[in-house]
Amino acid sequence: MKSLDDYCQGKLDDMETRKLRRTLIDTYRYAPAKARRNGKEMISFSCNDYLSLSHHPDVIQAAQEAATRYGVGSGASRLVTGNTPLYSELEQKIANFKGTDDAIVFGSGYLTNLGAIPCLVGKDDLVIADELCHACLYAGAQLSRSTFTTFHHNDLDELEDLLKIKRPNHRKCMVLVDGVYSMDGDRAPIKGISLLAKKYDAWLLVDDAHGLGVVAEGKGSTYVEGYQMPVPLQMGTLSKAIGGYGGYLCASQPVIDFIRTRARSFIYTTGLPPATLAAAIVSLDLIANDKELVARPIRHAKLFTDALRLPEPESCIVPVILGAAETSLEAGEALEKKGFIVTPIRPPTVAEGTSRLRVTFTAEHEEADILRLAEAVRPFLPEKPINQFS
Ligand SMILES: Cc1ncc(COP(=O)(O)O)c(C=O)c1O
Questions:
Q1: Is the torsion defined by CA of 141, 114, 238, 251 positive or negative?
Q2: Domain annotation covers residue 12
Q3: Same domain for 303 and 252?
Q4: Which ligand 1 atom minimizes the distance to the CA of 178?
């Protein structure tokens, strides 16, 4: 239809001019931290498979056996016939690991936030979010039709001001933060935020997609100085350190029971493939029992930041802020020519003028490759560091 095609083509042309068009590249991830692109062997510094568990032989074997036993698909929504026994095993394991009564597994992390937030708050309620929280927290808040406001990144004073002024006008209130910020690699001050949330009777949801399996000996961002912080809603994904796919929410029994019977993105969608659940069960065991494995991604990130005298990493995500979108594209292309995949991140994912290389470190990177990458990145570093949070 011409008007439709013209609309889309106009948008694409505009993005092309502003160097903001996104394209897909076939990537064959054939081994931990390795990928083949356009026939060339590359080292990937852009995967969120932080522990390389997607290629772990035990994880693969579990997935293969589950596919053989249960088939490749779950056949229906979990509330119909899609609830394989693997679900309860996985949910109990996650809950035990996170120290909560129970857990619920969704189709993805994105679906978890789309489902859980509107279950708990509605149009008379208030949602306050860190401005840099993930797109799916924004989407969940929007779906809830609550009054929505943000505070400057990690600014506890502003959060308290908002709670003080706005909280009394609403029956219920949720605070949304990431444990580890996906494009910045820094962490939320969970201790301070959880104390504020408690003080103002706000329900804190921490999205720990990038913390599980990596920070606090793998237990995630809600563990601070060896203790579980009082965070009633601990959400995460099975797609990053766990190495597979799916999302989860850990909480008390009444919360999980309520969400199981109410969340639309849980009810009206097909259950995950059994192989994915079996893989996650084995991955969680590996994370819980191998402290050396979970320590490696941040150690590798530190090797890189030390080499380039960048700030000490708080996670295994290191942003190298370059400024203009064009510069980040040039840097990404130059690194690719040297055999490294480091995807440039541009607006609208990050703020204008803060385009960057988002470098992620995994357990299986070789130290020599990390140092070679640092040397390849060095020529692109701006003379004066650019503040990504301004
Ligand atoms: C902070 C954060 N939350 C949620 C998600 C969504 O998780 P999933 O990929 O499982 O949908 C992502 C990344 O994709 C993320 O970075």
A1: positive
A2: no
A3: no
A4: 1
Summarised one tens digit per residue, pLDDT across range 53-106 is 999 999 999 999 999 999 999 999 999 999 999 999 999 999 999 999 999 999
Which of 104, 117, 136 to probe ligand 1 with, by most ligand atoms within 8 A of CB? 136
Residue 182 sits in the same domain as residue 321 = no
Domain around 308: 17-46+291-380
383 CA to centre of ligand 1 in angstroms: 33
Instruction: Classify residue 7: in a domain, yes or no.
Output: no
pLDDT digits (tens, 9 = 90+) for 190-200: 999 999 999 99
Specify whether 300 is located in the same domain as 279: no
Structural domain count, the chain: 2
| Probe residue for ligand 1, chosen from 94, 110, 212, 349 as the CB with the greatest number of ligand atoms within 8 Å | 110
State the distance from the centre of ligand 1 to the C-alpha of 48, rounded, in angstroms.
10
Q: Is 136 in the pocket of ligand 1 (CB under 6 A)?
A: yes
The percentage of the chain sitting over the pLDDT mark of 70, rounded to a whole number, equals 100
Residue having the nearest C-alpha atom to atom 16 of ligand 1: 182
Cβ(178)–Cβ(146) under 8 Å?
no
Edge-to-edge strand list for the sheet holding 317-323: 317-323, 355-360, 344-345
CA 273 to chain centre: 21
Residues 276 and 307 placed together within one structural domain of the fold: no
